[in-house]
Amino acid sequence: MSKEIWDPGLQSERTRLAWVRTAVALSTGGLAAAGLTLRAGLPPAAVAGFALASLCGGVLLARTGVRFRRHQRALHGGVPLDAGLDALFAWLGTLCLVAGTIFFVLS
């Protein structure tokens, strides 16, 4: 009896939901903060950080289905997973939110 790497649990589904939560938080948080920044009359540079964060969240959300299918194939095939591009978008979006928040607070 050979032991397979693949576990029939719901790991990939939970991972997909975590990426969706991250993407939705970036998108909605960025849009809400951009709207608040516009209403406060702050310079466009502050709005740009929040808008870029929202864009990163949208890209992550759009890539969710592709990422899920790719990870399913990798898990079933026993090959390493690669989420480098998606992690880059998540970090970039988070950094944009932080930069926008710092700019908002200091203005």
Structural overview:
With 107 residues, this protein is an all-alpha fold. The protein starts with 10 loop residues before the first helix and ends with a helix. It has helices at residues 11-39, 44-62, 64-77, 84-106. The mean pLDDT is 83. 79% of the residues lie in helices and 0% in strands. The protein has four helices and no strands. Helix 1 packs antiparallel against helix 2 (44-62) and helix 2 (44-62) runs antiparallel to helix 4.
Structural class: mainly alpha
Shape: elongated
User: Main beta sheet: strand number and arrangement?
Assistant: none
Query: Number of helical runs?
Result: 4
Helices and strands, in order, run as HHHH
Uncertain regions spanning at least 5 consecutive residues: none
Whole-number mean pLDDT: 83
The total beta strand count reads 0
Percent of sequence in beta strands: under 5%
Distance between the termini: 65 Å
Specify the helix fraction band. over 70%
> What is the rounded Rg?
18 Å
